[in-house]
Amino acid sequence: MTKGSRIFEVDRLDCRLVAHRWAFAEAQAAEIDRRWAACVSENPALYDGPVLLACRAEVAAEGAGRVLRLDAFETSFSRFLVWRDFGWPDKGVFNCFAMPALRSSDGAFLVGEMAPGHSAAGKRYFPGGTPDPSDVLAGGVVDLTGSLIRELVEETGLPAHEGVAEPGWTVLFDEQRIACIKQLRWPQPAVEIRARVQAFIASEAEPELCDVHMLRPGPQTDSRLPTFMVDYLAHAAKLPG
Protein backbone atom coordinates (compact mmCIF):
# COMPACT_ATOMS: atom_id res chain seq x y z
CA MET A 1 0.00 0.00 0.00
CA THR A 2 1.35 3.43 -0.98
CA LYS A 3 1.99 5.76 1.93
CA GLY A 4 0.93 9.37 1.79
CA SER A 5 3.38 12.23 1.46
CA ARG A 6 4.83 14.19 4.35
CA ILE A 7 3.88 17.81 3.71
CA PHE A 8 5.68 20.93 4.90
CA GLU A 9 5.12 24.62 4.25
CA VAL A 10 8.49 26.40 3.99
CA ASP A 11 9.52 29.97 3.34
CA ARG A 12 12.43 29.25 1.02
CA LEU A 13 14.67 26.61 -0.57
CA ASP A 14 18.43 26.44 0.00
CA CYS A 15 20.04 23.99 -2.43
CA ARG A 16 23.82 23.72 -2.90
CA LEU A 17 25.97 21.63 -5.25
CA VAL A 18 28.40 19.28 -3.46
CA ALA A 19 30.83 16.52 -4.41
CA HIS A 20 29.37 13.08 -3.72
CA ARG A 21 30.31 9.51 -4.65
CA TRP A 22 27.13 7.54 -5.22
CA ALA A 23 27.80 4.02 -3.94
CA PHE A 24 24.68 2.59 -5.61
CA ALA A 25 25.73 3.80 -9.05
CA GLU A 26 29.25 2.44 -8.64
CA ALA A 27 28.12 -0.95 -7.34
CA GLN A 28 25.42 -1.36 -10.00
CA ALA A 29 27.33 0.09 -12.97
CA ALA A 30 27.05 -3.03 -15.16
CA GLU A 31 23.34 -3.48 -14.42
CA ILE A 32 22.70 0.21 -15.07
CA ASP A 33 24.37 -0.06 -18.49
CA ARG A 34 22.35 -3.18 -19.33
CA ARG A 35 19.05 -1.69 -18.27
CA TRP A 36 19.73 1.63 -19.95
CA ALA A 37 20.44 -0.14 -23.25
CA ALA A 38 17.10 -1.93 -22.92
CA CYS A 39 15.31 1.35 -22.14
CA VAL A 40 16.80 3.09 -25.18
CA SER A 41 15.88 0.11 -27.35
CA GLU A 42 12.25 0.54 -26.26
CA ASN A 43 12.31 4.35 -26.35
CA PRO A 44 15.03 5.82 -28.63
CA ALA A 45 14.00 9.36 -27.58
CA LEU A 46 15.68 8.92 -24.18
CA TYR A 47 18.86 10.96 -23.64
CA ASP A 48 21.50 10.18 -21.03
CA GLY A 49 22.29 13.75 -19.98
CA PRO A 50 23.50 15.02 -16.60
CA VAL A 51 20.98 15.59 -13.79
CA LEU A 52 21.12 16.69 -10.16
CA LEU A 53 19.93 14.52 -7.28
CA ALA A 54 20.10 15.29 -3.55
CA CYS A 55 22.23 13.44 -0.99
CA ARG A 56 20.88 15.45 1.96
CA ALA A 57 17.47 16.98 2.58
CA GLU A 58 16.10 18.51 5.75
CA VAL A 59 13.43 20.98 6.78
CA ALA A 60 14.89 23.31 9.39
CA ALA A 61 13.70 26.24 11.47
CA GLU A 62 14.89 29.64 10.30
CA GLY A 63 13.83 32.51 12.50
CA ALA A 64 10.05 32.43 12.67
CA GLY A 65 9.83 30.33 9.50
CA ARG A 66 11.24 27.20 7.88
CA VAL A 67 13.70 26.39 5.10
CA LEU A 68 14.31 23.26 3.03
CA ARG A 69 18.07 22.65 2.90
CA LEU A 70 19.43 20.37 0.19
CA ASP A 71 22.84 19.11 -0.91
CA ALA A 72 22.77 18.24 -4.62
CA PHE A 73 25.22 16.21 -6.69
CA GLU A 74 25.60 15.55 -10.39
CA THR A 75 24.96 12.14 -11.92
CA SER A 76 23.66 10.75 -15.21
CA PHE A 77 20.04 10.33 -16.23
CA SER A 78 20.61 6.59 -16.81
CA ARG A 79 21.73 6.13 -13.20
CA PHE A 80 18.74 8.09 -11.94
CA LEU A 81 16.31 6.14 -14.12
CA VAL A 82 17.56 2.71 -13.05
CA TRP A 83 17.59 3.78 -9.38
CA ARG A 84 13.97 4.90 -9.77
CA ASP A 85 12.93 1.74 -11.58
CA PHE A 86 14.67 -0.41 -8.92
CA GLY A 87 12.33 1.17 -6.35
CA TRP A 88 14.68 3.81 -4.87
CA PRO A 89 17.10 1.34 -3.15
CA ASP A 90 19.45 4.03 -1.78
CA LYS A 91 17.33 5.82 0.83
CA GLY A 92 20.01 8.46 1.37
CA VAL A 93 19.41 9.94 -2.10
CA PHE A 94 16.42 12.00 -3.25
CA ASN A 95 14.92 13.17 -6.53
CA CYS A 96 14.13 16.80 -5.69
CA PHE A 97 12.42 19.08 -8.21
CA ALA A 98 10.45 22.33 -8.34
CA MET A 99 7.01 22.68 -9.93
CA PRO A 100 4.50 25.47 -10.47
CA ALA A 101 0.95 24.79 -9.30
CA LEU A 102 -0.51 27.08 -11.94
CA ARG A 103 -4.00 28.00 -10.75
CA SER A 104 -6.59 29.53 -13.06
CA SER A 105 -8.73 32.52 -12.17
CA ASP A 106 -11.61 30.10 -11.54
CA GLY A 107 -9.60 27.84 -9.24
CA ALA A 108 -8.39 24.88 -11.36
CA PHE A 109 -4.79 23.62 -11.59
CA LEU A 110 -2.90 23.01 -14.84
CA VAL A 111 -1.67 19.39 -15.02
CA GLY A 112 0.36 18.05 -17.92
CA GLU A 113 0.20 14.57 -19.42
CA MET A 114 3.63 13.33 -20.46
CA ALA A 115 4.15 12.47 -24.13
CA PRO A 116 4.98 8.91 -25.34
CA GLY A 117 8.70 9.68 -25.74
CA HIS A 118 9.09 10.69 -22.10
CA SER A 119 10.52 8.39 -19.43
CA ALA A 120 7.26 8.86 -17.49
CA ALA A 121 4.95 8.61 -20.52
CA GLY A 122 1.27 8.89 -19.64
CA LYS A 123 1.84 10.19 -16.11
CA ARG A 124 0.08 13.39 -15.10
CA TYR A 125 1.66 16.09 -12.96
CA PHE A 126 2.50 19.77 -12.84
CA PRO A 127 5.08 21.03 -15.36
CA GLY A 128 8.57 20.35 -14.05
CA GLY A 129 11.61 18.16 -14.23
CA THR A 130 14.74 17.01 -12.46
CA PRO A 131 17.22 19.90 -12.24
CA ASP A 132 20.45 19.77 -14.22
CA PRO A 133 23.82 21.57 -14.25
CA SER A 134 22.34 24.53 -16.16
CA ASP A 135 20.49 25.37 -12.92
CA VAL A 136 23.73 25.85 -10.97
CA LEU A 137 24.65 29.49 -10.32
CA ALA A 138 27.88 31.09 -9.13
CA GLY A 139 29.02 29.71 -5.80
CA GLY A 140 27.30 26.37 -6.36
CA VAL A 141 23.77 27.57 -5.61
CA VAL A 142 21.15 25.41 -7.37
CA ASP A 143 18.41 27.70 -8.68
CA LEU A 144 15.25 25.64 -8.26
CA THR A 145 13.06 28.66 -8.99
CA GLY A 146 14.87 29.09 -12.30
CA SER A 147 14.34 25.40 -13.03
CA LEU A 148 10.61 25.85 -12.41
CA ILE A 149 10.42 28.85 -14.76
CA ARG A 150 12.34 27.04 -17.51
CA GLU A 151 10.30 23.84 -17.32
CA LEU A 152 7.00 25.76 -17.36
CA VAL A 153 7.78 27.59 -20.59
CA GLU A 154 9.43 24.56 -22.25
CA GLU A 155 6.47 22.28 -21.58
CA THR A 156 3.54 24.70 -21.92
CA GLY A 157 4.76 27.86 -23.63
CA LEU A 158 3.55 29.90 -20.65
CA PRO A 159 6.01 32.50 -19.29
CA ALA A 160 5.92 32.57 -15.50
CA HIS A 161 5.89 36.38 -15.35
CA GLU A 162 2.28 36.37 -16.58
CA GLY A 163 1.23 34.84 -13.25
CA VAL A 164 1.57 35.96 -9.65
CA ALA A 165 3.60 33.67 -7.39
CA GLU A 166 2.37 33.02 -3.87
CA PRO A 167 5.04 33.37 -1.14
CA GLY A 168 6.70 30.23 0.15
CA TRP A 169 6.65 26.62 -1.02
CA THR A 170 4.69 23.47 -0.28
CA VAL A 171 7.21 20.61 0.02
CA LEU A 172 6.03 17.01 -0.27
CA PHE A 173 8.24 14.05 0.64
CA ASP A 174 6.88 11.10 -1.39
CA GLU A 175 9.27 8.20 -0.73
CA GLN A 176 12.51 9.42 -2.40
CA ARG A 177 10.77 12.16 -4.36
CA ILE A 178 10.76 15.69 -2.96
CA ALA A 179 8.31 17.91 -4.82
CA CYS A 180 8.79 21.63 -4.14
CA ILE A 181 5.60 23.30 -5.32
CA LYS A 182 4.91 27.02 -5.64
CA GLN A 183 1.39 28.20 -6.36
CA LEU A 184 1.24 30.50 -9.39
CA ARG A 185 -2.01 32.40 -9.83
CA TRP A 186 -2.95 32.97 -13.46
CA PRO A 187 -5.28 35.72 -14.72
CA GLN A 188 -7.14 33.49 -17.21
CA PRO A 189 -9.91 30.92 -16.61
CA ALA A 190 -9.24 27.20 -16.95
CA VAL A 191 -10.79 26.79 -20.41
CA GLU A 192 -8.60 29.54 -21.89
CA ILE A 193 -5.40 28.24 -20.29
CA ARG A 194 -6.01 24.72 -21.56
CA ALA A 195 -6.73 25.92 -25.09
CA ARG A 196 -3.60 28.06 -25.09
CA VAL A 197 -1.35 25.22 -23.94
CA GLN A 198 -2.94 22.72 -26.33
CA ALA A 199 -2.19 25.13 -29.19
CA PHE A 200 1.42 25.33 -28.04
CA ILE A 201 1.71 21.53 -27.88
CA ALA A 202 0.30 21.25 -31.41
CA SER A 203 2.92 23.72 -32.67
CA GLU A 204 5.88 21.75 -31.29
CA ALA A 205 7.75 19.20 -33.40
CA GLU A 206 8.60 17.08 -30.33
CA PRO A 207 6.41 18.26 -27.44
CA GLU A 208 7.13 17.06 -23.92
CA LEU A 209 3.40 16.86 -23.22
CA CYS A 210 0.66 15.16 -25.22
CA ASP A 211 -2.19 16.97 -23.43
CA VAL A 212 -3.06 19.13 -20.44
CA HIS A 213 -5.90 18.94 -17.96
CA MET A 214 -7.41 21.41 -15.49
CA LEU A 215 -8.03 19.70 -12.15
CA ARG A 216 -9.97 21.07 -9.20
CA PRO A 217 -8.44 20.80 -5.71
CA GLY A 218 -9.75 17.97 -3.58
CA PRO A 219 -9.68 14.14 -3.62
CA GLN A 220 -8.40 12.48 -6.82
CA THR A 221 -8.90 8.95 -8.18
CA ASP A 222 -6.78 9.06 -11.36
CA SER A 223 -4.05 6.39 -11.10
CA ARG A 224 -1.89 8.37 -13.55
CA LEU A 225 -1.29 10.98 -10.83
CA PRO A 226 1.75 10.24 -8.63
CA THR A 227 1.15 10.16 -4.88
CA PHE A 228 2.60 13.63 -4.33
CA MET A 229 0.15 15.06 -6.88
CA VAL A 230 -2.85 13.39 -5.23
CA ASP A 231 -1.68 14.65 -1.85
CA TYR A 232 -1.00 18.19 -3.05
CA LEU A 233 -4.42 18.54 -4.68
CA ALA A 234 -6.08 17.32 -1.49
CA HIS A 235 -3.93 19.72 0.55
CA ALA A 236 -4.72 22.62 -1.81
CA ALA A 237 -8.42 22.27 -1.01
CA LYS A 238 -7.55 23.54 2.49
CA LEU A 239 -5.63 26.57 1.19
CA PRO A 240 -7.16 29.96 0.32
CA GLY A 241 -8.93 29.71 -3.04
Structure description:
There is one protein chain. With 241 residues, this protein is of the alpha+beta class. It has one domain: Nucleoside Triphosphate Pyrophosphohydrolase (Alpha-Beta Complex), CATH 3.90.79.10. Helices cover 27% and strands 32% of the residues. It is globular and about 50 Å long. The two termini are 31 Å apart.
Q: Which value, in Å, is the CA radius of gyration?
A: 18 Å
How many separate structural domains?
A: 1
User: What is the helical fraction, as a range of percent?
Assistant: 25-40%
- N-to-C span: 31 Å
Strand content: 25-35%
Primary descriptors:
single chain, 241 residues, alpha+beta, Nucleoside Triphosphate Pyrophosphohydrolase, five-stranded mixed beta sheet, three-stranded mixed beta sheet, globular
Summarize the entry for a quick read:
With 241 residues, the protein is an alpha+beta fold.
